[in-house]
From TrEMBL:
A GO biological-process term: carbohydrate metabolic process
Identification of the protein by name: Uncharacterized protein
Keyword RNA-binding among record annotations: no
GO MF term list: hydrolase activity, hydrolyzing O-glycosyl compounds
Alphabetical UniProt keywords: Glycosidase, Hydrolase
SUPFAM superfamilies xrefs: Galactose-binding domain-like (SSF49785)
UniProt domain Beta-galactosidase 1-like first all-beta: residue ranges: 88-194
The organism of origin for this protein: Trichuris suis
Keyword hit for Hydrolase: yes
Glycoside hydrolase 35 catalytic domain location: 7-37
Length: 355
């Protein structure tokens, strides 16, 4: 977020800089170098360094561990906080990431109007663990939607911090006002501070492979996916490409790589420096909020992502067909300048214990 108008900025650290996010020289760097030489009359005597090696590791299949709510005891790393009213992220001492707000609703079954005051920034609304819809801060004081309850339901609101203002004023996150159902203020909330990184310290035998099979909801409920994969001696930079996925967060070997939102764009890939990878076993975990891509079954329990050797930062510039042609061209016929610095490796996927 940037400035009073809350406009989004790209996750990439590139920003059209003279050096790319991967540390490579760009045309802007060359133009600056040439201009300095022209103005000073001093020739450039030092050779330019070669571009860093990038590897297109290929396709990685991830398996669903379960919905975030079903894994709450594993991803809520700190003690839950109980209070009469909803608390901000700051009051919870949780400045980044996500918080799950939960409350028991002693209402009879039926349709109700949910209203949230002071939402910052994005909320996924669930009833008894099933997604009902999403609300996003639009500078309105109060946001509303219809929800369908069963008798004595549990209402869960997963709130995501999309980024803070970088100047000007205090930018609190979370649910800053009341939450009401058809005019009744809901009280006695339980707050869970979500830490996906906690899963890197969890043995696979303790994780239920619940997936989404048999879920009654037709809407996608925020779900955690993972995969273990083996790498040999060739460890180099790469780019994570969640082709067809909706919106989420990537974690690799305990590192929070970043947020992806290809549907919104323009950035489609995340830069993965080689120091986030290692020889031998690696672990990838993805928290997908909206909809996974490249799934091989109707219940979306096994879905694929890709690791390619170049960034895609301009969705608005290239159409989907143009991007597909570019990907295929680089896979099968790399350019002359790429041949010495580009490698393609098929990921060796290790099946998690109990899978």
């Amino acid at each position: 977020m940037n400035g009073i108008s809350s406009l989004p900025v790209t996750t990439s650290y590139d920003y059209d800089a003279p050096l790319s996010e991967a540390g490579d020289i760009t045309s802007k760097y060359l133009a600056i170098r040439t201009q300095i030489e022209r103005l000073t009359g001093i020739p450039n005597l030092y050779p330019l360094p070669p571009a860093n090696v990038k590897i297109a590791y290929g396709t990685l299949k991830l398996r669903s561990l379960g919905t975030l709510v079903s894994l709450l005891n594993l991803v809520s790393s700190m003690e839950r906080v109980i209070s009469k009213r909803t608390q901000s992220f700051e009051n919870l001492n949780w400045p980044y990431g996500t918080v799950l707000y939960e409350v028991r609703v002693p209402f009879s079954a039926g349709k109700y109007i949910l209203k949230i005051s002071g939402l910052k920034d994005l909320a996924y609304v669930m009833v008894d663990g099933q997604l009902q819809g999403a609300l996003m801060d639009t500078k309105k004081q109060e946001l509303s939607m219809n929800v369908q309850l069963s008798d004595n339901s549990t209402l869960q609101i997963l709130v995501e911090n999309l980024g803070r203002q970088n100047f000007g004023y205090i930018d609190k996150k979370g649910i800053l006002g009341n939450v009401t159902l058809s005019g009744t203020v809901l009280t006695n909330w339980v707050h869970y501070r979500i830490s996906i990184e906690a899963l890197f310290n969890t043995a696979y035998s303790y994780i239920p492979a619940t997936g989404r099979k048999g879920f009654s909801s037709t809407l996608f409920t925020p779900t955690i996916y993972n995969a273990d994969f083996l790498l040999g001696n060739s460890i180099e930079d790469t780019f994570f490409y969640p082709k067809g996925w909706g919106k989420g967060q990537l974690y690799l070997n305990g590192y929070n790589v970043g947020r992806y939102w290809p549907k919104l764009g323009p950035q489609l890939t995340l830069y993965v420096p080689k120091n986030m990878l290692k020889q031998g076993n690696n672990r990838a975990i993805v928290l997908e909020y909206e909809n996974p891509g490249q799934c091989v079954d109707q219940y979306e329990t096994v879905c694929a992502v890709e690791f390619i050797d170049f960034p895609l930062l301009s969705k608005s510039v290239l159409s989907n067909k143009q991007m597909e042609r570019r990907l295929e061209k680089r896979k099968h016929s790399p350019g002359q300048s790429d041949k010495k610095k580009r490698k393609v490796i098929t990921l060796d996927v290790a099946v998690p214990a109990g899978g």
